[in-house]
Amino acid sequence: MKKTTCKNLGGTCDAEIQGETPEEMGEKSKQHVMEMMQSGDQDHKAAVEKMMQLSKEEQEKWYDDFQKSFDSLPDA
């Protein structure tokens, strides 16, 4: 199991996100962001809007880079 923070994944806070795989960590990050947005957190909303402004290719490159760096993340 690996860990990182919301901020390291492009978010805005230091909440810890854990996962066995990049996909699991991505899903948990998405859940965290959705919860924060539902609670009215404007910083997380702005981070999502910024990510959505990236082109499809830029989003894919970001995710590919994350997948490649996953193994170097600290263990949870």
Task: Chart the SSEs and their pairings.
Elements: E1 2-5, E2 16-19, H1 22-38, H2 42-52, H3 56-69
Antiparallel strand pairs: 1-2
Helix pairs in contact: 1-2
**Structural class, judged by helices and strands?**
mainly alpha
Please state how the strands of the largest beta sheet are arranged side by side.
Answer: 1-2
Overall 3D geometry? Answer: globular
Tally of extended strands? Answer: 2
Q: Give the domain tally.
A: 1
Estimated share of beta-strand residues: 5-15%
Order of helices and strands: EEHHH
* Helix count from the secondary structure assignment: 3
- Main sheet: strands, sense, barrel: 2 strands, antiparallel
Radius of gyration: 12 Å
Helix content: 55-70%
- List unreliable stretches of 5+ residues: none
Distance between the termini: 6 Å
The mean pLDDT is 94
What keyword list fits this structure?
76 residues; mainly alpha; 2 strands; 55% helix; globular
